[in-house]
Amino acid sequence: MVRRLLVLTALTALALALAASALAATITVRVEGKTRSIFGSLPVTVEASNAMQALDIASTLGEFHYQVVDSSFGPYVSQIGKYPAAGASGWVFKVNGASPPVGADKVELKDGDAVLWYFATFGDLGGPATLELKAAGAGCYALSALDDAGKKVALRSASLHVDGRRVKVPAGGKACVGRHTGLVRAFAVGAVRSNAVR
């Protein structure tokens, strides 16, 4: 009888594990800190079912600390790396460039989703824009700035950084850096730095 119970328990645990992995999606995750990239400047592909799980996997792969506290609206990420949330500043996330209207543990990810965790200071108009960089031809790149809703907003004083050089990005968002060997990143006043692109 005990043996049957153990076998049944093991089979149930296996079924739950398989079901959980079947629900996981293949996504990319990146974590941008207050002063530097913490994980995945080139977004890293992982299997995760929600944004909280994506952060947990990233913390294991990148060997960084994060802290979660219970709040009235569910689990809240109160710290990633060195900097804790305080006042109007804290840790937030976007999926595919937009801030979801639910907590990180409630977001159901789909294959191909991109999760970005970042440190932000919020004002009257919400959080800072997040920058997204894409290759746009040989040595050229297209830069977009996205608000909390994932809508494009005007770029302010943006530049591409590569191989120790800075190239100003015009208002249209496209700039060419010419030949280079390093990764290209975008920075703009009051915005969260971009992903890196080869």
TrEMBL record:
InterPro entries given in the database record: Transcobalamin-like_C
Residues covered by the Transcobalamin-like C-terminal domain: 66-120
Signal sequence segment: 1-24
Gene3D superfamilies, sorted: 2.170.130.30
Entry keywords, A to Z: Signal
Presence of keyword Signal: yes
The name this protein goes by in its record: Transcobalamin-like C-terminal domain-containing protein
Biological source species: Gaiella occulta
